[in-house]
Design a protein that fits this description.
By secondary structure, this protein is mainly beta. It is built from 2 helices and 8 strands, in the order ββααββββββ.
Length: 171
Amino acid sequence: TNGNLTFRLKYAYVQFNHPFKGSKAFGKDVIRLGQTMNPLVDWEEGLFQYRFVALTPWNYLSLSSTYVGAEMNGPIEHNGKEYLDYQFGVFNDTSFHHIEQSDTKQFMNRITWYPVGTTADRTGFALTAFNAFGFNNKTPDTKSTSQDTFAAIASYQTHDKGYEIVGEYDY
């Protein structure tokens, strides 16, 4: 009951690849159902490429890297370049290593804009916004308080991923 289980399963989901494959802009999108990735933490770990050194800021403070829910993500491309990358979903109020106690859900979304486009994952200049709105994990007979999390990130990474600079504001 305290979340310290002998066996933990971090990811377990069904993924539908390319449900909009007829669209030029949304052709690479995916839909996931199950125990899936947090829209910010997984993306930011991919940007930093150094999860073994430290957790990302919101992962360290309060958000888990994994939640149970339904989500959609993908790039929006035009003329062979990616201009937007997004991920949004509805999830339980707890992580993969705790027991869900509440009867509420939380909504999380992330959007990354590449003003001049990019041809390589998370490279070039990008502006990212993330929001998570939900309630704390309390039993239904206990008063829950709302939690609203926000992050704004500006990043630049060379296409060979050899250099990057990132600034992040969290609220």
